[in-house]
Amino acid sequence: MNVYILENAFFSLMMSSIEVFPKECLGLLVGTKGREKFVINQAVVFQTAERTTNEVFYPRDKVYKEMERFLKEYMPYLSTLGDFHSHPYRKLERDGYKPSDGDIELMEYGNIYIIVQIHKKRKRMIWNYNPSEKTISGTIGDNFIKISAWTRSRDNGEKSEQANIICRPAVGLLGIPEWLSS
Ligand SMILES: [Zn+2]
To answer: Is the pTM of this model over 0.85?
Structure first.
């Protein structure tokens, strides 16, 4: 399974996770779905989510329904594909990009789920794809961010399966150095 994250969605995933850090953010993924691929055009943050550092409560069904109605009326070529949420940490957690048991339980078949791991950076890093982890990661401002994508398959004992991420706007991204921007 391949997941293409387009520019708008990539920046929303990053900025919404940074904005509420160290709390968790959560939202909907909107785009198109093919046989072996998802294309994510937009990541739409849930404004009314109640965030704590451990859990997020939000009116999921209501927002889903409103989004479906909006898309049907104005953008019938797009649909809701799944959810995203962030995993904020104080420092590097090796498996922090993976879904928790609770996350997996909430995954629906045929949907895609994105996890944005975030913690304060130790040093500046260029954005890149890590093929062994199937993640994209890099730094922005004071933050280190790592993004992963997941599905759940009936054929796999109901476990989660990780998808490949293709995110052209992320690869090679590095902020303009201060000496050049001033
Ligand atoms: Zn989670």
So the answer is: yes
Tens digits of residue pLDDT in 125-161: 999 999 999 999 999 989 999 999 999 877 766 789 9
How many angstroms is it from 160 CA to the middle of ligand 1? 13
Query: Domain 2-181 - what CATH class?
Result: alpha beta
- State the distance from the centre of ligand 1 to the C-alpha of 159, rounded, in angstroms: 15
Ligand 1 mean position to 44 CA, how many Å? 17
Query: Is there a contact between 8 and 31 (Cβ–Cβ < 8 Å)?
Result: no
**Cα distance between residue 18 and residue 25, in whole Å:** 9
Contacts of 39 (CB under 8 A, 6+ apart): 4, 6, 31, 32, 33
- Residue 98 sits at φ, ψ, to 5 deg, of -90, 150
What residue has token string 């420092």? 91
